[in-house]
Every structure is written in structure tokens, then in C-alpha cells.
Design a protein that fits this description.
flat, 3 helices, mainly alpha, two-stranded antiparallel sheet
């Protein structure tokens, strides 16, 4: 990714000046982020499972089902990110 030459190197806000560091962008495909999020929802589901009767008594069983929905959506997101990573790897291999 090439940055344009006319990028600002300094921002002035009030009496303060902030320098903009030249940092290359990360090439992140999102797979690890989705894996961690899905695992977090799964662990939360397992942690809430022993308290099902209390959740039912207090009318907050939606917490449990929200965690399960997070796991399901995370699995779809994981497959999407893996396909995107594969596509980008094939595209980069064809470009070389």
C-alpha cells in the first residue's frame, strides 16, 4: 500500500501540536480476533450454564442464549475470515 505524498505530518489542535508517525499498516485478516471472540462467548456460555435456574428465576436467561448466539455467529464469521485469508493469499501468489 503506497501512501500519498501529501499526507499531513502534523496536526494542530488548540495550542498543542501532534506529530504523525510514519507507520506501515498492519495486514490483519481478522481470524485470530474472531477466534478469541468466539471462544470468549463459549466460555461465558459454559460459565452461565450452572446458573440456569437462577437466570430463569430472575428472567435473564437471554444472557445464556446471547452467548450461544455469539458462538454461532462467531463460527460463521470465522469461516468468512478464513475464506477471505485464503482468497487474499491466492491473489497475492498470482500477483508474484
Amino acid at each position: 500500500m503506497d501512501l500519498r505524498d501529501d499526507q499531513p505530518t502534523q496536526h494542530d489542535f488548540g495550542r498543542r501540536s501532534y506529530l504523525v508517525a510514519h507507520v506501515e499498516p498492519l495486514d490483519v485478516d481478522g481470524v485470530r480476533t474472531v477466534e478469541v471472540g468466539t471462544a470468549g462467548f463459549f466460555l461465558a456460555f459454559l460459565a452461565l450454564l450452572p446458573f440456569y435456574s437462577r437466570l430463569e428465576r430472575e428472567g435473564t436467561t437471554w444472557w445464556l442464549w446471547m452467548c450461544l448466539a455469539g458462538v454461532g455467529l462467531g463460527l460463521f464469521g470465522l469461516e468468512y475470515c478464513r475464506r477471505r485469508r485464503r482468497f487474499r493469499a491466492e491473489r497475492d501468489a498470482d500477483a508474484v
